[in-house]
């Protein structure tokens, strides 16, 4: 009887420790999300001048540019369709 009561007491302590640790992890997860969001915002602020420069000084599209872009994209689409058909 004594051992059963002792076991339940330790089990309750263990559960309390686990619950506190889970709450700690949740708070750390929120902290890490906030740090990641702040890092992304700082990166956007840092890259904004370069983006503006790229927008103003980018080369203009020529007549055959879309055809040159559609050829590899179409090839990839056909490859994916072929792979899906091969698996079935």
Q: What is the strand content?
A: under 5%
Run of helices and strands: HH
User: Which regions contain 5 or more consecutive residues with pLDDT less than 50?
Assistant: none
Biggest sheet overview: none
Helical amount among residues, as a percent range?
A: over 70%
| Backbone shape | flat
Question: Structural class of the secondary elements?
Answer: mainly alpha
Radius of gyration: 29 Å
Structure, explained:
The chain is mainly alpha-helical. The chain has one domain (2-87). The protein is 89% helix and 0% strand. The protein is built from 2 helices and no strands. The protein has helices at 2-56, 65-87. The longest helix has 55 residues, at 2-56. The chain is flat and about 80 Å long. The model has no long low-confidence stretch (mean pLDDT 83).
Q: What attributes does this structure have?
A:
88 residues, mainly alpha
Q: Any chance you could write out the topology, listing elements then pairs?
A:
Elements: H1 2-56, H2 65-87
Outline:
With 88 residues, the protein is mainly α.
């Amino acid at each position: 009887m004594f051992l059963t009561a002792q076991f339940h007491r330790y089990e309750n302590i263990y559960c309390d420790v686990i619950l506190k640790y889970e709450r700690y992890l949740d708070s750390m997860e929120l902290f890490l999300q906030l740090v990641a969001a702040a890092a992304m915002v700082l990166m956007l602020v840092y890259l904004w001048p370069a983006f503006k420069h790229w927008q103003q000084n980018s080369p203009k599209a020529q007549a055959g540019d879309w055809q040159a872009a559609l050829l590899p994209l179409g090839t990839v689409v056909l490859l994916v369709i072929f792979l899906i058909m091969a698996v079935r």
